[in-house]
Amino acid sequence: MRRLLVSSLAVAVTACSGGSSRTADQLAALQKKKEAEAKAKKEDKLEAIPTEVVKLDPPYDDSQAQVILPDGPCPEGFWALFQGDAPGADAAEKKANAARRKEVAEAARAKKYIVKLRAPAQVVLSPYDAPKGQFTIDVHGTIDCTDSIGRIAIAWSDVKAGDPGNSAAKDGAEVTQNVWVAQPIKFDMPIRSLTEAKEFNDKNRFGLSARIGFGLGRVEVDKKSKRVSKVATKAEGESLSFGGGVEDWGAGRLVHAEVLGIRVATDREKKQLFEKK
């Protein structure tokens, strides 16, 4: 009986020892799995970040030109390209800036500039034209920037000031604000196969980009004078008048770009599709 108890105890100890070993192995395996998953996630995140920066030659090289962002701030000194009031916090500062106008304008004209455009709003891939076997890519011909005085349009294609056409701003308005309207730069991409056309569309509709390298050309200002009648009203026995006089509804200031090159690309700018100089 005693021998049987000893044997049973030995079996129990062995079983517990084995169970403990298996638990330790399972915990170790689970820890290794977690470490592997964490490493994989980290590698995925690293791979998602572009590690290759596209190096382009002039006139598209960022390091040799100033980049202007659409609807961003104008480069320093653009105000000096135009006649009129100089910027400044007070009369003395405005007078000092006006005296430097020629110097500031020459410095701005001595630089080169780059505008970067992106699909789908600024670089537009049209629907595939099966009869012609091609896509048409439209690159916008103008952007706006803003300085302390207001907005300045920059155009690198045929441009004119005019009525914006049918728009919400026009509904019920006595007079509409002119805008600078530029023609898009068009590029035709021949693709004969419908299968290839679908692949190109799926890959590039949101992946196209364009760079415009340029210097500064002539400037112009569009004015649209409109005489506004006074509006009279009475409040608590007093007569009040609002408005009156002449208002300017023109498109405002424009800089014509002297184009050095237009580059259309895909695949994060690594694959050039077109270039126009």
Automatic annotation (TrEMBL):
Recorded superkingdom: Bacteria
Protein name: Lipoprotein
Organism of derivation: Archangium gephyra
